[in-house]
Specification:
The protein has one helix at 2-19; strands at 28-42, 52-69, 72-88, 92-112, 117-138, 144-166, 169-174, 176-185, 196-204, 210-217. It is mainly β. An eight-stranded antiparallel beta barrel has the order 1-2-3-4-5-6-7-10. The relative contact order is 0.16.
């Protein structure tokens, strides 16, 4: 069994070494991802009323990079997302509106297994800004609103897979990764400006699926 396993590993390694493709130094990549999602939930209750909740999310993230070495690129990426969550009940309405923006450098390494298929890992960091406006109206309580702005930084490590249907264009996908963020409220918030928020996440799964496309100039 050990001999069979050793032969399998040697054969696989030799195949990968023979089939491996290289993205040459000097190549320029330009790509990104865009996504829109809308969900609506209606929940009837015991008195035959049906509170409604609608969630809308828009996400856009362009990126540009340059291969300083074979298979190793450095670049800059930015992302913008906007989400709204509206709850409408028989006696109250709640509206959440949130915008997030981030920009910063990244390092990306490609390990091509065949001419068309490979693995990719991305290490990114940058500045982040997060704003949220919440309002609520009720027939049983006074109306109100909250507002905050948060500034901070974030970093992430994301593994993924990449597929080249043609030489200069790639489709890539990831299923989550590791992330860390730190943020503080600024003076414009209605929440205590001294509050700080630290988040560490290790999230993987189909719910974290992200798809993107990249064009390679000079490949």
């Amino acid at each position: 069994m050990k001999a069979f396993f050793s032969i399998f590993i040697i054969t696989l390694t030799a195949y990968m070494a023979h089939a491996q493709e290289v993205i040459k130094a000097g190549t320029v990549q330009l790509g990104g991802s865009i996504n829109y999602n809308q969900q609506h939930l209606s929940t009837p209750n015991a008195v035959n009323t049906a509170p409604d909740m609608t969630t809308r999310t828009f996400f856009f993230s362009p990126a540009a990079g340059y291969f300083i070495l074979d298979n190793l690129a450095v670049g800059v990426s930015l992302s913008y997302s906007k989400s709204t969550n509206t709850y409408s009940g028989p006696a109250s309405t709640i509206d959440y509106r949130r915008q997030q923006f981030s920009i910063g450098p990244y390092v990306q390494y490609y390990q091509m297994l065949t001419q068309h298929f490979g693995l990719v890992g991305t290490l990114a960091a940058g500045y982040s800004r997060d704003t949220e406006n919440d309002s609520f109206a009720s027939s049983n309580a006074p109306n109100g609103a909250t507002f905050y702005k948060r500034n901070g930084f974030l970093t992430s490590l994301t593994p993924g897979i990449v597929f080249f249907p043609i030489t200069r264009f790639a489709l890539s996908s990831s299923f989550g990764g590791l992330s860390y963020s730190y943020a503080t409220n600024d003076g414009g918030s209605t929440i205590d400006s001294q509050n700080t928020y630290t988040t560490f996440g290790a999230n993987f799964g189909l719910s974290q699926l992200t798809l993107s496309g990249t064009y390679f100039f000079g490949r």
